């Protein structure tokens, strides 16, 4: 048993305001995308890594990732994250399990990858996430519509892992129905399938805005990483 990893890295990084794709930002001498790919390169259960990239960045990406032998394919991304993942899904060899992990999430721990992998062997769809620390309210413009029950909420992270056929079916169904979603599990939920939850950790951030870079530097410093 093993899995294939799909890494969407074809975003614009517009919320980062870096002027180019944020996955190329270097953190202590190593780009975000190299750090993310490195997680799967090191995971013995992962047999291949496939990325979605922006067409104009394909050459740069291939050069950056030349030191990672598990990278087996780099495909053109699409308009939305969901399209990028579908573009890769339809190109990869059929396998038992697929992990989908944001290119911009470089701190997923080996323990988390292992727990998600163990879970996907018995459950066909697995996500990970952490408990909400703040009180979350649903709003209607400038007015509170409802205060949600915190114990029923989960901050969702990646990796999300799936039975290959199930995630393919979920993406195809979403495309047919014109569903636009921000994570892959939502498409599986639409099929009425149950989705298992594994606990993630608060270091597994998605680097989205400038302040996330400060957090990222501090996570790296806390690990005492040598260059
Ligand atoms: N069309 C897209 C959009 C996003 N992504 C990838 O999906 C991951 C999560 O998306 P997000 O953090 O939103 O990245 P961006 O879309 O780059 O950021 P923004 O929304 O601020 O432009 C990132 O690794 C990003 O590269 C992708 O492959 N294809
Ligand atoms: O910020 P975006 O909506 O582009 O992407 C969000 C997704 O990456 C996100 O939903 C998963 O990482 C799970 O949280």
How is this structure best described in words?
By secondary structure, this protein is of the alpha/beta class. It has one domain: Spore Coat Polysaccharide Biosynthesis Protein SpsA, Chain A (Alpha-Beta Complex), CATH 3.90.550. The chain is built from seven helices and eleven strands. The protein has helices at residues 32-41, 58-64, 81-89, 110-122, 164-177, 184-190, 210-223, and strands at residues 3-8, 26-27, 30-31, 46-53, 71-76, 97-100, 125-131, 137-140, 143-147, 154-163, 196-199. Strands 5-4-1-6-10-7-11 form a seven-stranded mixed beta sheet, with helices on both faces. Strands 2-3 form a two-stranded antiparallel ribbon. The protein has a two-stranded antiparallel sheet with strand order 8-9. A hairpin with a 2-residue loop joins strand 2 (26-27) and strand 3 (30-31). Helix 5 (164-177) packs across helix 6. The longest helix is centred in the last third of the chain and has 14 residues, at 164-177. The protein is globular. The chain starts with a strand and ends with a helix. The mean pLDDT is 97. Bound molecules: cytidine-5'-triphosphate (CTP) and the ligand O=P(O)(O)OC[C@@H](O)[C@@H](O)[C@@H](O)CO. Ligand A1H0Z binds at residues 81, 102, 156-158, 182-183, 206.
């Amino acid at each position: 048993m093993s899995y294939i990893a799909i890494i969407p890295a074809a975003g614009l990084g517009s919320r980062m305001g870096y002027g180019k794709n944020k996955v190329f930002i270097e953190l202590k001498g190593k780009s975000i995308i190299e750090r993310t790919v490195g997680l799967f390169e090191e995971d013995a259960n992962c047999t291949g890594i496939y990325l979605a990239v922006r067409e104009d960045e394909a050459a740069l990406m291939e050069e950056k990732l030349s030191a990672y032998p598990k990278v087996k394919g780099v495909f053109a991304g699409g308009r939305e994250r969901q399209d990028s993942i579908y573009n890769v899904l339809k190109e990869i060899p059929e396998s038992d399990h697929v992990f989908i992990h944001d290119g911009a999430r470089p701190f997923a721990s080996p323990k988390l990858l292992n727990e998600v992998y163990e879970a996907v062997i018995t459950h066909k769809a697995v996500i990970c996430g952490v408990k909400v620390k703040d009180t979350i309210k649903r709003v209607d413009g400038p007015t509170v519509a409802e205060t949600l029950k915190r114990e029923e909420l989960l901050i969702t992270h990646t990796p999300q892992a799936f039975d290959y056929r199930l995630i393919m079916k979920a993406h195809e169904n979403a495309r047919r129905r014109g569903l636009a979603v921000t994570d892959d599990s939502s498409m599986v939920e639409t099929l009425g399938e149950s989705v298992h939850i594994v606990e993630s950790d608060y270091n597994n951030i998605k680097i989205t805005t400038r302040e996330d870079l400060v957090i990222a530097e501090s996570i790296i410093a806390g690990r005492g990483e040598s260059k």
